[in-house]
């Protein structure tokens, strides 16, 4: 399964919007399957953007996880990617080279935010 940064952002936004700081136990994202969301939750846990609990079992088709909460790094990424126009600009920059690591995504987003702030 290919990593989908739009899904990554959607998951982070969904977790943040939950009222008590913990991720909702029934995390769903419109337009994505349960397997896609669970795999991306696993990837988010690996990245350090969330605290995640591995939920894979012997019959799992792919790695899966359940998110507990966002980390400080997760909030930082979310703040940089929150504004839809900045997110779209970052996607256009990354698409020019065909993809990028999380480190590059964060750098591109941070640079765009700095420019919008006049820094």
Structural summary, described in words:
The chain is mainly alpha-helical. It has one domain: Orthogonal Bundle (Arc Repressor Mutant, subunit A), CATH 1.10.10.10. It is 56% helix and 9% strand. Strands 1-2 form a two-stranded antiparallel sheet. Helix 1 crosses helix 3 and helix 4 crosses helix 5. The termini are far apart.
What's a concise summary of this model?
Strands 1-2 form a two-stranded antiparallel ribbon. Helices cover 56% and strands 9% of the residues. It has five helices and two strands; from the N terminus they run ααββααα.
Largest sheet: 2 strands, antiparallel
**Level-1 CATH class name:** Mainly Alpha
CATH architecture title: Orthogonal Bundle
Structural class: mainly alpha
Number of domains: 1
Set down the secondary structure blueprint.
Layout (H helix, E strand, L loop, with lengths): L4 H13 L16 H14 L2 E5 L10 E6 L1 H10 L2 H14 L4 H16 L2
Antiparallel strand pairs: 1-2
Helix pairs in contact: 1-3, 4-5
